[in-house]
Design brief:
Largest sheet: 7 strands, mixed
CATH superfamily of the largest domain: Fructose-1,6-Bisphosphatase, subunit A, domain 1
Distance between the termini: 48 Å
CATH architecture of the largest domain: 2-Layer Sandwich
Number of domains: 2
Structural class: alpha+beta
CATH topology of the largest domain: Fructose-1,6-Bisphosphatase, Chain A, domain 1
CATH class of the largest domain: Alpha Beta
Strand content: 25-35%
Helix content: 25-40%
Number of helices: 7
Length: about 260
């Protein structure tokens, strides 16, 4: 088994283990704290999931670097392999009992996104991809949608944690897309939004001010499902702070709207 295959097997196992913990504690009373803003939440379940994943990685991949959302990883520039982890994407949803959250694990090799795993524990859906090998959902191949008209498209987006006080708040883009698309959804999990583009459930997705762990896995899954990912200037970036992901056919129309 190759090094990438071993890491994908481990990533899927760790995503399932963290997801099981989330499922067990779902809709319980949680210890909730804020981080960068009043709407940027963290619970004890975020911490427990990150600890579970990090302990396993230290034991099984001790030379790998780890960038984890809650800050427990050891991110080193000299490591060939790097894990990028969001132990609980959709913390606000989770804290409020809204069933849209997941575990997201991306892995880079020599700075290149190599594999991604996103696990929804409530639906038991495992989205996964390895570079050059396609994307899958519970082992079934994934393909993006064939929609080529924005007026028939279902889109997804989100809002950054500084939305209360920043003028760069995505509301201008949202207003323009509301007038152009068939519908827009805002479900609060960037990783799942990206996977839904890969699965053809959404036709495209855009968002501002993401962090690396938000898109590390999902962006690769979109690309491996035949989609396209870029920033708003149509530049390719591994983990853009602004992102548009589409089935490819809608990418030009999405960029046109985003550029105003």
């Amino acid at each position: 088994m190759s090094a990438a295959a071993r890491r994908r097997q481990l990533a899927e196992a760790l995503a399932r283990a963290a997801g099981s913990l989330q499922r067990e504690r779902y809709e319980h009373v949680h210890e909730v704290r804020t981080k960068s803003a009043s709407i940027d939440l963290v619970t004890e379940v975020d911490q427990a999931c990150e600890t579970l994943i990090l302990e396993a990685l230290r034991a099984q991949c001790p030379t790998d670097a780890v960038l984890a959302e809650e800050g427990g990883g050891d991110d080193r520039a000299d490591a060939a392999w790097r894990w990028v982890i969001d132990p609980l994407d959709g913390t606000m949803n989770y804290a409020h009992g809204y069933p849209r959250f997941c575990v997201s694990i991306g892995v880079e090799h020599d700075g290149i996104a190599t594999l991604g795993v996103v696990y929804d524990p409530l639906l038991d859906e495992m989205f996964a991809a390895t570079r050059g090998e396609g994307a899958s959902l519970n082992g079934r191949p994934l393909r993006v949608s064939n929609e080529d008209t924005l007026g028939r498209a279902l889109l997804a987006t989100g809002f950054a944690y500084d939305v209360h006080h920043s003028r760069d708040d995505n509301l201008d883009h949202f207003a323009r897309f509301v007038k152009r698309a068939r519908g827009i959804r805002r479900d609060g999990s960037a990783a799942l939004d990206l996977c839904y583009v890969a699965a053809g459930r959404f036709d495209a997705y855009w968002e501002l001010k993401l962090q690396p762990w938000d898109a590390a896995a999902g962006a690769l899954i979109v690309c491996e499902a035949g989609g396209r990912v870029s920033d708003f200037s149509d530049a390719l970036a591994a983990l853009p702070r602004e992102i548009v992901a589409s089935n490819g056919r809608l990418h030009g129309a999405m960029l046109e709207v985003l550029r105003g």
